Amino acid sequence: xxxxxxxxxxxxxxxxxxxxxxxxxxxxxxxxxxxxxxxxxxxxxxxxxxxxxxxxxxxxxxxxxxxxxxxxxxxxxxxxxxxxxxxxxxxxxxxxxxxxxxxxxxxxxxxxxxxxxxxxxxxxxxxxxxxxxxxxxxxxxxxxxxxxxxxxxxxxxxxxxxxxxxxxxxxxxxxxxxxxxxxxxxxxxxxxxxxxxxxxxxxxxxxxxxxxxxxxxxxxxxxxxxxxxxxxxxxxxxxxxxxxxxxxxxxxxxxxxxxxxxxxxxxxxxxxxxxxxxxxxxxxxxxxxxxxxxxxxxxxxxxxxxxxxxxxxxxxxxxxxxxxxxxxxxxxxxxxxxxxxxxxxxxxxxxxxxxxxxxxxxxxxxxxxxxxxxxxxxxxxxxxxxxxxxxxxxxxxxxxxxxxxxxxxxxxxxxxxxxxxxxxxxxxxxxxxxxxxxxxxxxxxxxxxxxxxxxxxxxxxxxxxxxxxxxxxxxxxxxxxxxxxxxxxxxxxxxxxxxxxxxxxxxxxxxxxxxxxxxxxxxxxxxxxxxxxxxxxxxxxxxxxxxxxxxxxxxxxxxxxxxxx
Length: 565
Known about the structure:
The protein is α/β, with parallel strands linked by helices. The protein has an eight-stranded mixed sheet. Helix 12 (348-360) links the parallel strand 16 and strand 17. It is globular, with a radius of gyration of 28 Å. It starts with 17 loop residues before the first strand and ends with a strand. Mean pLDDT is 89; it is low at 1-12.
């Protein structure tokens, strides 16, 4: 929406005939999906996702939504609703539960995947409600209805949220698949019925909004797998998302049809398949699954390896294989490797590097551009039009995507008859207020991301990242000075160390010049009547920064230690 006039500095009390939608994530890339619905101070959180770090986020494990708004409104939040079990919708749940303790509503598989991420502290006293499509639950003044959708993971749902001020439809991640693996077709009839009821706002998955046409059915992947398996003379190694249970089932089915046994390699895929098998979403006989010992004793043409690493994740099974650093498996020239996923934006280089390394090791690597070994779980333009025409929302808010995806989805919505001024291109942190007669931007809250590095997270993450980028590009230069302020002299020669900046043993002339220049500079500073450790340290750092750039045209991180004895 380009011409919103009513803007306020912060969210005010919401009138009884209005509600607010606050996207906290999911509008600046693929991941960290989270929205808050606020009616009269009663709030629901929809999803709590993470985003995979890109190559510039050195050492970062994941990115989660900024939870400042949650922290400030924790007494108003009634529940968390999860639409499905992918990381970009449940990966931030442990961090969210550090802030609030409210009931969680999710379908069975989604709940199990989510609970698997929680520690004992999070689980203690946690209220969980397992729901299924067509269920309706009352939460405060709000009613949430769960609607069957198709996606690349079982048990995905869309939502109809009824408030006294109007109905909100949230599609969740969806596609229209007429032959889904689990036989559960998207409930278009129910979406149409809710559309006839009258929908004020629709939030919808935008991931493939820039792609025309319809998606292929997930079953196409199984057909492609079978052709590849029949041509493979050695092991078949399939890399995919650990939560893509339907794809894993197809890999198992084709393996058995081609007289192969299979093995899962990687903790996340082992955990997820164990849950899916226990709940009946994954079907195979125990004797068809190999152990590590068995895998290494039978003929390679009888083995299928199902692993992670389709996104080039540094610690995943396939990446370790590409580095020749996986203790359970070494790539052999007759291996056929299938990368059954599309790179998430930002991961393209990491995926390409893995493909190159695997090919250098002699493997036959098959990826999406060569074959139908992956179909998306997200609707393309014609599928999006179908849902827009069935739901007929007054206002439309595209979610889940980069800006170009949201923009394309907005164009698609306009083509179905939704007025341009009723379509919102929101940003994370926007507080949008809706009523039957008006829409306004009522304020903003923190909408950035929080960087998670091991057990640490926080606002300082951007500063830490900046330091890491400098270190990776320019290296570090350290100086240790021992002096006596009382005697106004150096006690020992300055000690210089360098890592990743210059190789000291091959830079004798530069080091001699730096040492002489520093000694002269220090003697000059020590003669000053106001000399102190802090001042000397700062002046030395500034002096070194300018001197090193003048000599090398590089800007290393500079550390200066001054000891007064």
